Amino acid sequence: MDIREKQRTLFQNTYASLRGRIHPNGYAPTSVTGAYEGMFSRDASIQIMTHVACRDYEAARMLLSYIFSYHRQYGYDFALHMMLEDQPPYSDMVQADATFFLLHAWYLYAVYAPQSEEKQRLLAQTEEQAVGFADYFLTPEFYRQDWNLLRNQNLEGPRQHSYFNCYDLLTNVYASQALHEFALYFARKRPSQAAHWEQTAQALRRGIHENLTAVVDGKPIYMEMHALTRNDGRKYHNIPHRKSYVGFSWVNLSVLGAKWYGADPELLENTYAAYRNHAFVPYFGTYPMPEHTSEYQADGTCVLRKDHVLGKTLAWELIYCHDTGRREREQEILDFVEQYSDEMYREKWIYTGGGSDTANQEHASWMICAVRYVLAGKM
Known about the structure:
By secondary structure, this protein is of the alpha+beta class. Helix 6 packs antiparallel against helix 7 and helix 10 runs parallel beside helix 12. It has helices spanning 3-20, 41-53, 57-74, 96-112, 117-136, 169-185, 191-211, 254-258, 265-279, 311-323, 327-339, 361-375; strands spanning 39-40, 82-83, 143-144, 149-150, 152-156, 163-168, 213-216, 219-222, 225-231, 238-245, 280-283, 287-290, 295-296, 302-303, 308-310, 348-350, 355-356.
């Protein structure tokens, strides 16, 4: 099997796993290995994005239908952390980023899916909900006006196996992106709301560039977050944690995956260069890969964990390398994925060998999006 054939097999097997896990009612579990229980709103939203990118609009419609009907049934105006099929919510933890991922996915389906009775029915059933979701976090409880940033009560995953109550890059980039998209989509139908969303999207753009940047190696970069408290692992008790994280974690690179309309190209390039300089580790002494979490210190050094690389991080880098003409690095990432994968894309590749949760909904979906984007017409 040549290396292109291996990539084709990985892609096809992974997509088949994502497509095949969708139940007739639209429920789709995050994990098929048992590593995670339930269907996570953020992960399912990324799978919707994947189906839209692959022009599999019926799969996207089924997922959207289930998610929105579930939230109508239980009366939630924001995207839930995690759902169990045909059961009350398992976790209604408030995560602002999950809502804006869902709105971004809704917009992509609404814009790109061809007209059909099924599409019109879904949009009619979900439009008021989507509009309510867009406004939910635009209140003083979550929106800090002097910073022009949104607070995420429970940013999941970047550090210490914790949920951070923070002002982070991921949430604000996707909020800015989704609100900008909603402003475009509803410009004629809801002009006053659309104007408010666009105004907020632009305010968030300013807030990110004024309050979520830091200087590394003498150049400004997109930083990770300003943390207030964190819920420590599985104990779920709040711990005061007032700390500004410059980086590096996948949060720094979230602008790459979003293809954010508001990104500053110079800041983006500086951020990528700083990540490569400070937080790339040779995998088995071969391919340099972005470490999951490493911490930049005030003295200019970086504490490396040498733990693992996430699928979405590789996917985001792959997209950025393609956009910026880094063909050698693009091929290096593809070669790495092909060499160190078995039958499908993984959640993560561990530096000491192996990986976790094959065909994980979030990370495999990002890999499908990135590989399709890079190799369109070549597979």
